[in-house]
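ESCALATION

Customer reports they have been waiting on this structure for their group meeting. Please prioritize. Original submission:
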Amino acid sequence: MSYPFYPQGIYDKGKGALMREETRFTDEQGRLVAVAISGSFLRGVTGFQSKGPELPARIMPPSRAPDAVVQEVTLPEQALIYRLSGDYNSLHADPEIAQTVGFDKPILHGLCTFGHSARAVLQCGLIPENNPALLRSMTARFSKPAYPGETLVTSCWKIEGVGGQRIVFQTTIKERGVVVLEGGMAEIGEAGISFSKL
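Update from on-call: job pushed to the front of the queue and completed.
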């Protein structure tokens, strides 16, 4: 399996730069399996001309009550467990390092929060038979950090339209009432899967 990396663009966001990149995952026969579009925020990198395709419009949840809500309590040692995935950034384990960048304590990995939200979307009862093979794509924007031990609350709205079904979602922290994952959209269709994040 190979996964080449392609830069997509870099954008001046005022307090820093958003760098977007695309990773393509192929199987042993060279067939495309999934595409991941991710973004990294580079603090303090600013004062340049943005380059790259226009960024997608922000996805907003409907003004009505959600169709489903899934709550999950993370473990106090959740970030230490998630380090087993290979992300050894000290920001998620060392209190002194976390404080040097403005956090009270180590924060949960963004992809760990994203994974919890993805599981919530799959378990919310809006996908036929909760079948993960029907999840075609998933996108979201990280807006605030989550801390290990907090309760993640993922609200889901089912949207029917041209091209199939979509689930708009956002994840908040029950204890603090802040949105940590916003602009979430899961596309439901025929078997096949790809993930992206902003």
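Sent to customer with the following note: The chain has three helices and eight strands.
Escalation resolved.
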